[in-house]
C-alpha cells in the first residue's frame, strides 16, 4: 500500500518511549535520590529502577515520549491523516504497544526499527502533583539521518507545514535535528522547538543556540526557561516575560514569521512574547483544576503543545491556540499518564 503524504501537515520528531508509571512514588524518589519534579537521563545507578518497577510495583505501561505525546495531542484536535511522528524503536513488544497507541489515536508512525534493539523506556514516578522522569533511551538515540531522508519519510517532510522537535533530540546526534530545522525553515515551513527539560538548556545550550535561528516557536515550562536564562548569563531568578523576551530576541535566519516564545508554568499563567512586540508580553491565566480532577501531571506540557499545534494548524488565532493548549493539558491531567479522553470529546 502506498500512503499519500499530501494530507499530513504536522511532522513531529523525538524519542519514542514507553512510560512505566507508578503513583505514590515518594519512597523510590528518595531511594534513587531524585527531584520530585524533574526529568533526567538514567545513569548507571538508576538502571535497576526499571526491573524494580516491573518486579515490585503496580506499573501502568502507557505510550510516552515528549514529541510523541504532542503528536497524539495534535491528532486529537486535527482531522484524520494530519500528523506523523518519526523516531527510532527496537524490535520488541514495547514498540508494538507504541505503534498500537499511535494507530488508535490517529498518528502515522514513521519509525526506524533497529534490528534486535530495545525500545526506550521512561520511569515516571508520581508524587502529589509532581512527576519525576528517569529515561533510558536505548535505541531511541540511534535514529539515522538516512532514515529521515529516505524514500519512505521524505515525502512527509515535503508535505508537512509545521515541524515539532522535542529538545531531547539535541542530546545525541544533534546535527540531524539541526539539519532538518535548517532545511525546512529555508523552505519557509514553521519550526517549533520545545526545550523539554531543564537539563537541555543546562547541558546542551550550544545545540539550542545552533538550532534557534531556524525556530519560529520556542515552547518551554518555567524550570526550562530559568535553566536557559542561567546558562546564558542572565541573573536568576528572572521573571517569565523577561526570559521569553530574551529567547525571542535570539538570532533568526528568516525574518518571517517573527519568533514567538511560549512559557507554561504549571497551574500558573502562561506567558507569550512575540519578537514583533517584544515589550508587550501576553499573559494567559490557567483555569484552576479541582483537587479531585487531577490524576497526575505527567505529559501536561506535551499535551499543551499538542493542543496549541492542532489549533494553529486549524488556522486559529494565537489566543485560541493557547486556550486549546490549556484545555488539552487539563484533559491529560485528568487521565493516567500522557493520555487523552477517548472516545473523543469537544475541547
Ligand atoms: P510541563 O509538563 O512541561 O512541566 P507545565 O507544568 O507548565 O508543563 O504544564 C503545562 C500546562 O498544563 C499548563 O500551562 C496548564 O495548562 C496545565 N497544568 C499543569 N499543571 C497544572 C496544575 N497543577 N493545575 C492546572 N493546570 C495545570
Ligand atoms: Mg511542570
Ligand atoms: Mg514539558
From TrEMBL:
Belongs to the carbohydrate kinase PfkB family. The lineage of its organism: Eukaryota, Fungi, Dikarya, Basidiomycota, Agaricomycotina. The keyword Magnesium applies. ATP dependent phosphorylation of adenosine and other related nucleoside analogs to monophosphate derivatives. PANTHER family: ADENOSINE KINASE. One of its GO terms (molecular function) is ATP binding. The active site is at 302 (proton acceptor). Its EC number is 2.7.1.20. Keywords: ATP-binding, Kinase, Magnesium, Nucleotide-binding, Purine salvage, Transferase. This is Adenosine kinase. GO terms for biological process: AMP salvage; purine nucleobase metabolic process; purine ribonucleoside salvage. SUPFAM superfamilies: Ribokinase-like (SSF53613). PROSITE patterns: PFKB_KINASES_2. CDD domains: adenosine_kinase. Pathway: Purine metabolism; AMP biosynthesis via salvage pathway; AMP from adenosine: step 1/1. It catalyses: adenosine + ATP = AMP + ADP + H(+).
